[in-house]
Amino acid sequence: MSYNVGDELPPFVIESVSPEAMKQWAIFLADPNPIHLDVEVVKAKGLGDQVINQGPANVAYMMNMLMAAFPGCRIESMDSRFLDNVYGEDKVVASGKITAIEDNRISCEFTLDVEGRGTVNSGTATVII
Amino acid sequence: MSEPDFPPAPAVAGTSLDGTKIFTITADENAALCRSTGVEPASDGSAHPIYYYIATQVAMGKTVAGVCETCEFDVDDGPMMGSSGVKFSEPLMVGQSYKVTGEILSLVRKQSRKLGVMDVLTYRLRLHKEADGSCILETDNVWVLPRKELAA
């Protein structure tokens, strides 16, 4: 498979972010922060009316996009910026494009967007193919 | 340039985050994690790379609340992730056991138009194979700690 600078990467889509998955992530991260588990806490803090997805889960969606775009690749480095929250039942789309190629090392930029609200994460990565 | 009218952030740079816990990625948990993000686990024994964040957070020497406490910040006031970066030298593997070293790099107090006074915490963690101590990744995380009590 050949790649070129400027190529768009196939989007990775989560049709509806699962509040049940947030309960799993609270265990994975050993972090029982109630904003991920109890919508009433989110409302009381004035943060919205749905539970808030854990930030590392959003990074995982972007990693999934990269790994699907470059089958068998290894992520060498990745930087992610957190711009806004992802909420339960949001539809999120991770997408990106190739910014540089050097031998078997491909650099990319990417975003995670929530349908109707725009970009909530952005970043760059280098993968080894 | 005028002096800021709020006290400086606590001097926490250099605080050790070395852990004593051993973190092992199990096949069952890796599979559950992968599926929770919409993919199947890899068949080559590698774990989902997001374990860079999970393993270092879980096995560092302080809890999230403990890191906040070191920064004289109440975790209930809502720390926010600002950014996260990672450099891997090897993939994470299922069944492999890891330990963590790290330290706080800086805590800088700033005035933000959106958040008012806030402290920007940067810390670095490294994940090592328990077997030989070799480092397989290094991650720098930035958290934003809103200082509501210092709001004008």
Task: Note the topology.
The complex is a heterodimer of chains A (about 130) and B (about 150).
Chain A: E1 8-14, H1 19-28, H2 39-44, H3 55-69, E2 74-82, E3 92-102, E4 105-114, E5 118-128
Antiparallel strand pairs in A: 1-3, 2-5, 3-4, 4-5
Chain B: E1 23-24, H1 27-36, H2 51-59, H3 64-70, E2 80-88, E3 97-112, E4 116-129, E5 135-146
Antiparallel strand pairs in B: 1-3, 2-5, 3-4, 4-5
Describe this structure in words.
By secondary structure, chain A is an alpha+beta fold. Chain A has one domain (8-128): Hotdog Thioesterase (Thiol Ester Dehydrase, Chain A, Roll). Chain A is 24% helix and 37% strand. Chain A is built from 3 helices and 5 strands; from the N terminus they run E-H-H-H-E-E-E-E. Chain A has helices spanning 19-28, 39-44, 55-69; strands at 8-14, 74-82, 92-102, 105-114, 118-128. Chain A has a 5-stranded antiparallel beta sheet with strand order 1-3-4-5-2, with helices on one face. The termini of chain A are close together. With 152 residues, chain B is an alpha+beta fold. Chain B has a single domain (23-150), classed as Hotdog Thioesterase (Thiol Ester Dehydrase, Chain A, Roll). Chain B has a 5-stranded antiparallel beta sheet. In chain B, strand 3 and strand 4 (116-129) form a beta hairpin. The radius of gyration of chain B is 18 Å and the shape is elongated. The model of chain B has no long low-confidence stretch (mean pLDDT 94). Classes of the chains: A alpha+beta (129), B alpha+beta (152). The interface between A and B is medium-sized, with 32 and 28 residues. Strand 2 of chain A pairs antiparallel with strand 2 (80-88) of chain B.
